Amino acid sequence: GCGAQKKKVSQFEEDHGIIVGFSQIGAESAWRTCNTRSVQDAAAEKGVQLVYANAEQKQENQIKALRSFIAYQVDVIVFIPIVTDGWDNVLQEARDAGIPVLVTDRKIAVEDQSLYAGFIGTDSLKEGRTAGQFVLEKFAAKRESFGQTKEPITIVELFGTEGSSVANGRAEGFREVLKSYPEFQIIYSKSGDFLRSKGYELAVEFLEMYDDIDVIFSHNDGMTLGAIEAMEERGLRPGKDIVIITIDAQQEAIDALREGKVNCVIECNPKTGPEIIKLAQRLAAGETIPRLQYVHEEVFYETDNLSLIEPRGY
Ligand code: AHR
């Protein structure tokens, strides 16, 4: 009967744990690699069997991975959507198969919100606003003189992956804060896909194009570190000749902050594995989970007591 069958299932779960399909974007940054490791470690610790798929930066690969999880009948799907749009159909298939879906790190836009159980991740809009507020304060003096000099504060933006919720949120929050201050001008904004190599390439380009850049707002540390390299090759002093704001807070960015090469580091927290696995276990047990959960994130300023920052671990 029912009871016997139930016992069998729970016996299986005791021996093997639940099976979670984990669709990761790829390995574009140190942040991403740390995030993958965090989920894998947490799964191993809790005896959760993780089926890991690396989409190598392609949405179509992610959709294929989700379909294979459905065919395999995993208990729960955890996925990090590379871009916001285009998930309705495959999520409908997961729903038809009765598999709950946890979205993490990046958000999705679907017509039917009930196509996924919940989201846990970063608040990218807030990150962008924090960056905007830092720039406002940092340039208080230059802003005052703008009335007479009409000399704008020029900003270069290194944009993350186009169409991703995190890049869009960071860009939007930043603009929202600065939009009522005409003294700020974004003179260049291009996607470096969160890659260090592209951050370097874009910096080579914009440093060639403009002589008077005041600020670089970079959507992640990888691109920032590439841009710093390009600046130094040109004999420029990052953090002094150009103010730099970066997002993630990997160890190399904190080191750059300590060396005065970066002015503000806004944390995006990759170590969400334990929380993700806990939520997946709850979903597998048929429980509901919160619709929206933001993880704890800090901001590190050049004026902070930087000796107090704990090693970042990645
Ligand atoms: O989605 C989070 C972003 O993706 C991180 O800021 C970036 O480093 C990563 O590649």
From TrEMBL:
* One Pfam family hit: Peripla_BP_4
* Coiled coil ranges: none
Record's keyword terms, sorted: Signal
Provide one Gene Ontology cellular component: cell envelope
InterPro entries tied to this protein: Peripla_BP_I (IPR028082), SBP_2_dom (IPR025997)
List the subcellular locations: Cell envelope
Principal location listed in the UniProt entry: other
The Periplasmic binding protein domain extends over 21-287
Annotated GO molecular function terms are: carbohydrate binding
Highest taxon of source: Bacteria
Q: Which family does it belong to?
A: Belongs to the bacterial solute-binding protein 2 family.
The name under which this protein is listed is Periplasmic binding protein/LacI transcriptional regulator
| Species per Swiss-Prot/TrEMBL record | Sphaerochaeta globosa (strain ATCC BAA-1886 / DSM 22777 / Buddy) (Spirochaeta sp. (strain Buddy))
